[in-house]
Structures
1.
Amino acid sequence: MRLRRKPWVDAALEEYGDIVVIKEIPFGVPEQPGSSLETLNAHEHRKGQWHEVFGRKAPLYVELGTGKGQFISELAEKNPKINFIGIEAQQDVLYYAAQKVREKGLTNVRLLVFDINHVLDIFAPGEVDRLYINFCDPWPKVRHAKRRLTHVNFLNKYRILLHAGGEIFFKTDNRPLFEFSLEQFEACNLQVAKVTFDLHNSDYQGNVMTEYEKKFSGMGTPINRCEVKFP
């Protein structure tokens, strides 16, 4: 799937070639000489070999839907011994995430422009230790339920790419989506812990907020959160 981007993004991202990995063509298909992707792919994607991209072996945490990068940049700064990958379909949005990563001088973050529907194309079985899903699109219409990132179809994909005992940390301000997700976790026989329907008034410690979370929690919107383990 080719993802549209704004004209200014290509040039703007050239200075972030050590952080941003762009893949719009099918994986496994060689890039053509002279492609604009060559400049940006300073760290070429390697399914099953992401430790080589980071230059070290460390636990791999992946955020599905990185947005402007407030969450992943702060989390990576607090956890320098973890390798982080942020996936975002909107390339122009990811530009701002790259800025934050550069400003903090982080070497343990890579940002990937990609469609999450094809997540199994970019990670080998068992390669990922933890997934973060923060404030994903709730797709409120019933006929769109399969597009929700916590639908059983996605959970079955996550089961493949996650290491044994791997986890999902999930947050949303959408109560119907949260309740739907809990049902999906149960249907997949996953272990759910630390469930809260009002995160900021709970006893949970160490929460890192996204831009979206700061905005809506500041307006008094309750935040739902849970941790899910794949046995």
Note: The radius of gyration is 17 Å.
2.
Amino acid sequence: MTTMHSVVDSPIGPLTLVGETASGHVRLTAVWMASPRHDHAEGLGVRDDAVLADAARQFDEYFAGERTTFDLDLDPVGTDFEKKVWMLLRDIPYGQTRSYGELAVDLGDPRLSRAVGTANGRNPLSIVVPCHRVIGADGSLTGYAGGLERKRFLLSLERDGAPAADWLF
């Protein structure tokens, strides 16, 4: 297996796409935003924009409002519980939100809302696995590894089909 990465421009700043290839097949393992929390300089492998071109194209389409779901092979690293939560995140429809508590109920135990929040925060595939669609029970925007301004931007893009006019990136 070979690890590689690509950096794509986006309205929320550069995104580092990390993938692995085996026998010519590419699987996306991470999408990192430029932030102190997402400083993953090690383990990125060589830069290879050509191999990750399809993923980059899909991000361009998403930010242009032309794509509502991603069609990529994914291979995130996490615990079995985290992977269950991440699968639930992928079921949240474009333009909609769910609370941590609703996801815990979907997992069969409403007491798991904090564990859901922890798994949500460890999601290595930002945007593709839409952790930005998870909000507080009262509808408030709660923590987001990429920062609340990015979360607000992504939710606005999906809700209104257009990014906020005063976005700074």
Note: Strands lie at 2-8, 15-22, 25-33, 46-47, 98-99, 134-135.
3.
Amino acid sequence: MTGATWAALAGLGAFHGLNPAMGWLFAVARGLHERRRAALLAALPPIAAGHLASVAVVAALVSATRSVTASTLVAVTGGVLLVGFGLWRLLSERHFRWAGMRLSAAQLTAWSFLMSAAHGAGLMLLPVLLAEPAAGASPHAGHLAAPAGALTGLLAAAVHTVAMLAVALVVALLVYEVLGVGVLRRAWFNVDRLWAGVLVAAGVVTLIGAA
């Protein structure tokens, strides 16, 4: 992958890290609930692990199936899903409710996986991954293409998640130590709507690229 691709993956990870629905708000709430910074810090790794699992499933599948026909099919299907999911998030009045604070690491990981999947986190990587040439494109390396592509997808998901975790950590500590949850009531904007709009835009870009 090129430097621009890695930068795009990290940028999307940073964007996910800024999104309170991806976990930093839960980590802050847990820290405030237990009145310990350690509780906040302990919540972030399981949240990142769940996010990684959700993104890795999509990234590995997309990167492993890289024939022209398969890529076009994945791009069209993914683009339609992105647009449809984004429109559903834009038009839906339903909001995800926060789970209780007393969750084990495994439960928190599972919650993060479901939350990331529900917000289409893995789908956001489609335009970036599909823009890359297939791994093992040599005619003598066809049997290696799928495993190599899947490995590339997993590495892409890892880079993406590291950026997500770093930004989420900074935001969570900033809110917990400096701002406090009061700022969320005074200076809140609807990140969920912004996120849905970005999903639709990414879907349109993916469909245009497939065409």
Note: Confidence is low (pLDDT under 50) at residues 136-144.
4.
Amino acid sequence: MGLWWLALTAAAIAVFALLPYATQPLSDLAAAENELAANYADRPGWLRGVLYAHMTGGGLALLLSPVQLSARVRARAPRLHQWTGRTALAGIAVGAVAGLVLAPHNVAGPIGVAGFGLLAALWLTFATLGFRAIRRGAVTAHRRWMIRAFALTYAAVTLRLWLVVLVPLTGEFLTAYRIVPFLAWVPNLVVVELLLRRRRAPHRERGRTVV
């Protein structure tokens, strides 16, 4: 059930949340009071291109990551796991580098520069460490790093969920958006670290029993 929830919410954000940006120019979205689009509508063309690169790379990674988490796919279709993994890694690389470029231009101000910038840096770092681990055959380390990377990929979902809660509470989008640069991903990473530690603990206990 947990995997299905992750897959459905990831697909919803990867497709439906990004669909307006794929079908309408930023100027039209800005005229419709889309604050994020308004922030970039009058920016230089190269920066608008970076925004679309971030959305495309991040959306691709978000869409494919639940497939990578499936033990059934890993066991029954290892080649599919390998190729979707490479595609997801490419999406993370594009999305994270673009995110680093976009961070100084975000609408949340200095807190956004710090929060979104650190998110992009860690996202790229975890994915790189996961790729290096599998290249040297360290499967367990690879899985752990990629689970961490997915926690940050999933920030695209949790950010929007937090906004659903915070916008009514604060009364406006910009105030709510200034709260989410860290809130969107730090709890995700904390939960993942706790789960990884719980999964490691039984192995340690079995090791002591055998000894």
Note: DSSP finds 13 helices and no strands in the chain.
